[in-house]
Specification:
Blueprint lengths: L44 H31 L3 H26 L15 H10 L2 H13 L5 E8 L4 E8 L10 E7 L6 H4 L3 H7 L6 H18 L1
Antiparallel strand pairs: 1-2, 1-3
Length: 231
């Protein structure tokens, strides 16, 4: 099973066929922790259904197919085929991992969305960025600058042992550049176009109203604890 919290490198997410021919378990789309209309009016139920049930499901289906092909290539000791399949594995695994984080990062306003309570994360945000409002402005600027599709991220950067703001292209994971993902903002058009049309700046501004800061804070605590254990 792909981990959404502890990815540190991008590698072929495959399991070798054992001598007994045992089959690997397939990846599945995780259930949402809330109803499709939970995030309205920020994100409509229509978008949530399409985004979760269709787009995320497509990444999962394509990842399973790609991994099956890698396993077949391994069985034949076809190194060239294994290498050729890595872009498909990387792209679809990224789509699966990024979206799995994304769903957990969100919660309706009536259930605490947008509320950052006292925590180690809140303290770190205020020390580094001054306030949540200043942080969100910087994340939005970084995300809006993406050319084409991609993700904006609030991360923990183990190299410097502190928060960081980055963007990744397409479905690349924050972990592909050595960062631990805490909060991801999907900047692909399928995440917002039905609600916001071409005014994606409004989507970036409004999504902070449904951020599940309890989830983000938990990821931060885990990242800091792991960092301390290794240093």
């Amino acid at each position: 099973m792909l981990s959404t919290k502890t990815f540190t490198t991008v590698r072929p997410f495959v399991r070798k066929v054992s001598a007994m021919g045992a089959l690997r378990s397939k990846h599945t789309v995780p259930d949402l922790d809330y109803d499709y209309n939970e995030l309205e009016p920020v994100i409509s139920a229509k978008i949530m259904r399409l985004h979760h049930d269709k787009h995320h499901a497509t990444y999962v289906a394509n990842l399973n197919v790609a991994e099956e092909k890698v396993l077949a290539a391994q069985a034949k000791n076809d190194v060239a085929a294994q290498v050729a399949l890595q872009p498909a594995v990387r792209f679809n695994a990224g789509g699966h991992v990024n979206h799995t984080i994304f769903w957990k990062n969100l919660i309706g306003e009536k259930n605490g969305g947008g509320q950052l309570h006292s925590s180690a994360l809140k303290k770190a945000i205020e020390e580094q960025y001054g306030s949540l409002e200043k942080l969100s402005a910087q994340v939005n600027a970084k995300t809006a600058a993406i050319q084409g599709s991609g993700w904006g991220w609030l991360t923990f950067n183990p190299t410097v042992g502190r928060l960081d703001i980055i963007s990744t292209a397409n479905q690349d994971m924050a972990s592909s550049v050595g960062h631990v993902p805490l909060l991801g903002i999907d900047a692909w058009e399928h995440a917002y176009y039905l609600d916001y049309n071409n005014v994606k700046a409004d989507y970036f501004k409004n999504i902070w109203r449904v951020v599940n800061w309890k989830d983000v804070a938990g990821r931060y605590d885990d990242a800091v604890a792991k960092h301390k254990s290794l240093n």
